[in-house]
Design a protein that fits this description.
heterodimer, A: 451 residues, alpha+beta, three-stranded mixed sheet, 14 helices, B: 249 residues, alpha/beta, Rossmann fold, six-stranded mixed sheet, four-stranded antiparallel sheet, 7 helices, 10 strands, 32% helix, disordered N terminus
C-alpha cells in the first residue's frame, strides 16, 4: 500500500499526467476489444445483424460467378463455330409442313433446303468467301458385327475438321482424291468408335451402313470434348456421336430423299444439303458477307427454308446479354447489401440508445467525441466485416456446389470476392457513421442521467 | 496544455486563508459563475454568480436543499457542463471557454468522479473499469494494468479484479469507482452523494476511505445533503437558490 503514489500529506501536484496522443495502436486495439466484447455479449443480435451482409456478399459473388460461367459457356460455343465463319442450315419451312399433313393419299416428297447451286453461286459471286464446306446429314444405323448405333452420318468435304476446330484423335481425315472417287471410307467420332469397337482399334477395320461396307480411316475427338467437358447438352453444336464420310459418297450411297415413318403414314423429304460453313477471309467483313448471302438466298428460294447464322454476331449478342445479366445480378445483390447496411444501422442505433449511460460514463472519464465515434464505428465495421468474410466463404462455396450438383459452369473471378468484401466494409462505415455521431453528440450530463 | 501540469498550480492563497494552516495552493477557482438554462421561451437561472476557491488537500462538502443548484455546480466543477458566464480555473487553466476535446482531456486527466450509482460499465470487469480513464489518457497496457491492480488492492478488492460489477455488492462497486477515480491521480476528486445508495455499514467504509484519502493530501469535493457526512469534511459550503449561503470551516 505504501508504495502507491497516492501523494504525500501535503497538496500534491498531479504526478501522472502525460501528453495525450490522439490516436495510437493501443487505443485502437482497446477500442476494437470493446467492440468485439459488445458484439460477443449480444451474440444472437449480432448474428442476425450480420446475416443481411452475409447474404448480400454471398449473393454478389455467387450471382456473378453463375452469370460469368453462363456467358463464358455461351461465348465459347460461338467461338467454337469460328468467328470468321458463316453457318447456313436447311430448315423445313412451316407452310410445307402444313400442306403435307392435310393431304391424304400417296406420300408426297417435300423438297426444301440448300442446294449445291446455292453454294456455287455464293462461292462465285462473293469475293470475300474463301471456302465453303457443305455437308449432308442423314441418320442411319451403323454396324460392326453385332454392335450398332443410330447416328448422324455427315457427308462433307476435306476442310470440315479445320473449319470447326475439331481434332483427330487417331488416323486421318479423308483426302480430296477420296472425295472425287466417292470412296467408301469413314471417320468415326470417338464416341461412336467406343460403341462399335469396344475393344479393338477401329482403324483399318470396316463398318456397315445399309448394305455397304466402309473402311475406318480416322477417329475424331467428340465435339465439345476439347473445350468444356460434357456440359454442353442442348446446344446446337453438340452431337457427340457422329461419323463422317465424303459428301460424294453420301450422295451416291444414300441419295437425297429420306423417308421416315410418322404417325400419319410415311413422310419423305428431299434435301440436297443440310448445312454449309462459309469461311470468310476477313473477320471484319463477316457480318456484311452474311447479309449478302441472305439476299442471294432470298432471291433463289421461294420459301424461307434456310437459316443464316453468324457466330460473330451471336457472340456479340451473347457478350451484350452477359453484360446485361451482370448488371441485373449486380443490382439485385447491391440491393441486398443495402438492406444489410440498413439492418446494421438499425441495430447500431438501438445499441447507442441502450448504451447511453455507458457513453456518459466514458465521456466523463475522458473519452473525446471521436473516441466514442471510433468505438461505435469499429463495432459497425467489425459487424459488417465479419459478415462480409462469412459472405465471401459462402459466396465462393455456392458456385462450387452449383457446379457439382447441376453441372453448370461457374467462374469466380478474384475480383468478385474482393469487390463484395470491400463494399461490405464500406457499408459498415457508411451506415455506422450516423449512429456513432449520435452517440458522440450526446450531452454527457444527460447521458449520465439516462436510466 | 497538460505540459504545465507538472509545475506548480495556481497562485498561493495564503492571504485568504483564515485558519492557521500553512499557505495553501488554490487547485480550483470559481469566479462569478452563472448558469442559465433555456427551456423554450423560459430562461431559468440556476446559478447566480458563485465564487469559491478550493484549496489543495481540502475535504469540502457542498450542501443545500434540492433545486439549489448543487448538481449544476457539480457538473461545472466536473467540466461536464459549461457556465453561461464566469470563469472556472482548474489548476491554472480557465476551462470556461475550452473546446469539447480539451474538456474531455481535462476530465480524464485532472478529475476523478464518484457517482451515487457507481456508474461502472457492466460488461467490463473490475480491473478494466479501473483502467478506463488511463486508457483514454494513452497509457500503455502494462502501465495501466499495474496501476489498476495496485489500486484494486488499495481499496481492498485485489482478489476480485476479474469480477464483473453485478457480481459485487454496492459497497464494493463504489470502491471500484473510487479506485477508478484515483487511477489518473487527479487534482480533485468529485463525489456526488457517494453513500446515497449504500447501507450504513458500506457507507461508513466509503467515508473511512475518504478520510484516508484526505489524510494523504487528496482534494475531495463531495455533494451531500446529510449533515452527518458533511461534519467529517473540513469545509462546508451551503447553497441556496443558486447562491453561496454559508462557507464554514
Amino acid at each position: 500500500m505504501s508504495d502507491l503514489t497516492l501523494g504525500s500529506a501535503s497538496a500534491s501536484p498531479p504526478t501522472r499526467s502525460r501528453p495525450v496522443s490522439t490516436f495510437n495502436l493501443v487505443r485502437f486495439k482497446k477500442i476494437t476489444q470493446v467492440g468485439l466484447k459488445s458484439i460477443y455479449s449480444h451474440g444472437l443480435r449480432s448474428l442476425l445483424t450480420m446475416l443481411g451482409i452475409v447474404i448480400g456478399v454471398a449473393a454478389v459473388i455467387a450471382m456473378l460467378a453463375v452469370s460469368e460461367g453462363a456467358s463464358y459457356e455461351a461465348q465459347q460455343q460461338f467461338r467454337d463455330l469460328g468467328a470468321s465463319n458463316i453457318l447456313l442450315k436447311s430448315v423445313k419451312p412451316a407452310e410445307v409442313e402444313e400442306t403435307s399433313r392435310s393431304g391424304f393419299g400417296p406420300p408426297q416428297a417435300i423438297i426444301y433446303g440448300l442446294t449445291f447451286a446455292d453454294i456455287r453461286t455464293i462461292q462465285d459471286s462473293i469475293p470475300g468467301v474463301t471456302n465453303v464446306i457443305a455437308s449432308r446429314i442423314v441418320k442411319k444405323n451403323v454396324w460392326n458385327l453385332g454392335n450398332s448405333m443410330n447416328t448422324d452420318i455427315v457427308g462433307t468435304s476435306v476442310d470440315y475438321p479445320t473449319s470447326r476446330n475439331y481434332n483427330l484423335r487417331a488416323g486421318r481425315f479423308f483426302t480430296e482424291s477420296e472425295v472425287r472417287d466417292h470412296a467408301n471410307i469413314v471417320v468415326l467420332s470417338d464416341e461412336v468408335a467406343s460403341v462399335l469397337f469396344p475393344i479393338d482399334n477401329p482403324i483399318g477395320k470396316s463398318v456397315r451402313i445399309d448394305g455397304d461396307y466402309y473402311n475406318v480411316v480416322g477417329i475424331m475427338e467428340s465435339e465439345g470434348f476439347s473445350n468444356l467437358g460434357q456440359n454442353q447438352a442442348g446446344s446446337s453444336n453438340a452431337a457427340p456421336s457422329r461419323i463422317f464420310l465424303p459428301i460424294t459418297s453420301s450422295r451416291t450411297r444414300f441419295g437425297e430423299t429420306t423417308t421416315r415413318q410418322t404417325a400419319g403414314g410415311q413422310e419423305s423429304e428431299t434435301v440436297e444439303l443440310h448445312e454449309a460453313i462459309i469461311q470468310v477471309a476477313d473477320q471484319e467483313t463477316v457480318i456484311q458477307v452474311g447479309e449478302v448471302i441472305e439476299q442471294i438466298l432470298q432471291r433463289r428460294h421461294d420459301d424461307v427454308d434456310y437459316a443464316v447464322e453468324i457466330p460473330l454476331a451471336l457472340l456479340r449478342q451473347a457478350e451484350e446479354s452477359a453484360l446485361r445479366d451482370q448488371i441485373v445480378a449486380g443490382a439485385i445483390a447491391g440491393i441486398s447489401l443495402l438492406v444489410g447496411g440498413i439492418g446494421i444501422m438499425n441495430i447500431m442505433l438501438a445499441s447507442v440508445t441502450e448504451r447511453t449511460r455507458e457513453i456518459g460514463i466514458r465521456r466523463a472519464l475522458g473519452a473525446k467525441k471521436r473516441d466514442i465515434v471510433m468505438q461505435f464505428l469499429i463495432e459497425a465495421v467489425i459487424l459488417s466485416g465479419v459478415g462480409g468474410l462469412i459472405g465471401v466463404v459462402l459466396g465462393v462455396s455456392i458456385p462450387i456446389l452449383i457446379s457439382f450438383f447441376w453441372g453448370m459452369t461457374t467462374i469466380v473471378t478474384p475480383l468478385a470476392p474482393i469487390l463484395a468484401f470491400s463494399i461490405s466494409a464500406i457499408i459498415g462505415v457508411v451506415f455506422g457513421i450516423y449512429p456513432s455521431m449520435r452517440a458522440a453528440d450526446m450531452d454527457p450530463v444527460e447521458a449520465l442521467r439516462h436510466e | 496544455m497538460t505540459s504545465t501540469s507538472s509545475s506548480g498550480i495556481g497562485s498561493t492563497a495564503g492571504a485568504r486563508t483564515t485558519s492557521a494552516r500553512p499557505p495553501q495552493t488554490v487547485v480550483a477557482r470559481l469566479e462569478d459563475i452563472r448558469k442559465t438554462y433555456n427551456m423554450g421561451a423560459l430562461a431559468v437561472q440556476v446559478l447566480h454568480g458563485i465564487s469559491i476557491d478550493f484549496y489543495g488537500g481540502d475535504y469540502i462538502s457542498i450542501m443545500g436543499p434540492s433545486g439549489c443548484g448543487k448538481s449544476t455546480l457539480m457538473n461545472i466543477l466536473g467540466c461536464l457542463d459549461q457556465p453561461t458566464s464566469g470563469k472556472y480555473f482548474l489548476g491554472d487553466e480557465d476551462t470556461s471557454q475550452m473546446p469539447d476535446d480539451e474538456l474531455s482531456t481535462i476530465r480524464g486527466a485532472r478529475l476523478g468522479f464518484i457517482f451515487q450509482s457507481y456508474n461502472l460499465i457492466q460488461q467490463l470487469n473490475v480491473l478494466e473499469n479501473i483502467e478506463m480513464p488511463l486508457f483514454y489518457q494513452g497509457y500503455s497496457e502494462a502501465e495501466s494494468q499495474e496501476i489498476a491492480m495496485a489500486l484494486a488492492e488499495r481499496v481492498g478488492l485485489g482478489d476480485r479484479v476479474h469480477h464483473k460489477p453485478f457480481e459485487l455488492s454496492g459497497g464494493q462497486q463504489q470502491r471500484v469507482a473510487i479506485a477508478r477515480a484515483l487511477s489518473v491521480d487527479p487534482l480533485i476528486i468529485l463525489a456526488d452523494e457517494p453513500t446515497g445508495n449504500l447501507d450504513s455499514k458500506s457507507g461508513a467504509e466509503i467515508l473511512n476511505l475518504f478520510d484516508e484519502l484526505h489524510s494523504q493530501g487528496k482534494t475531495l469535493i463531495m455533494v451531500t445533503h446529510s449533515d452527518e457526512l458533511a461534519e467529517r469534511s473540513d469545509r462546508q459550503i451551503r447553497l441556496l437558490d443558486g447562491r453561496v449561503e454559508s462557507d464554514e470551516r
